[in-house]
Amino acid sequence: MNKLDPSDSANVLVEALPYIQEYYGQTVVVKYGGNAMINEELKDAVIHDIVLLSLVGVRVVVVHGGGPEISDMLKKIGKESRFVNGLRYTDRETMDIVQMILCGKVNKDLVTLLEHAGGQGIGLGGMDGGMFRAKRLTDDDGTDYGYVGDIVEVNPQPVIDVLNRGYIPVVSTVAQGIDDDTNYNINADTAAAKLAIALGAKKLILLTDVRGLLRDPKDESTLLTRLKVSEVPALIKEGIVSGGMIPKVDCCVEAVRKGVERANIQDGRVKHSILIELLSDAGVGTMFI
Predict the structure, then answer these.
(1) What is the pTM of this model?
(2) pLDDT tens for residues 267-283?
(3) Contact residues for 73 (Cβ-Cβ < 8 A; gap 6+)
């Protein structure tokens, strides 16, 4: 690793100062998933970014998925992963695995990594303190997703309490059912956006495995760096926002329309992308304002 000379290091810190002042005491919600959760080098960078932000006074909330780990465990018990419209079909047995992996292994592994990096994390399941309440997700055409939930109510108080005590909340995306005696599997992007709204967050960051929103999906130089939410419907109509990007964009649009100052879809494959986005002039990905 190439070390900066002292004057370059000082310049980096000076550049970061106004951003630290801007975000000091503010809440930032990071949806952590994709390749950044699998690749050890990227995982280490994300964890250190979060700890650094916390130590300079930013109230960071981590919301995580765990798709690859869930798929691995299902494979171990001889069960095939099945997806419907991009969402994991979740029968009763799969729901048990989802809850075990998300609220157990993945959540506590992240807390441990934060502790090893000098931070203080506390793991919360989405059902703790009634944080996420949901009903079964149903489409107009009657598509069945099994035990996949649609969040109808968010109680941010457990997260606020943890933040006020100086800890980093690490939230898994399982919700308490209000229409059935069950818990529900929740899409992590949706959960992060709804929690950011409930917390009055300044910023929502969705880490993904693409650079952001591209005008031409095959050309990374066509990255749309900044979008007003009012411009999004036209982009959907043109087909520029399509497929799996539509729900991510919808989450950002909803968050900004409901009070989150800015929302980002950005590349979790870029080391320290969170710090680059928050504490530098450069910025990363697509920002919705």
Answers:
(1) 0.93
(2) 888 999 999 999 988 87
(3) 97, 100, 101
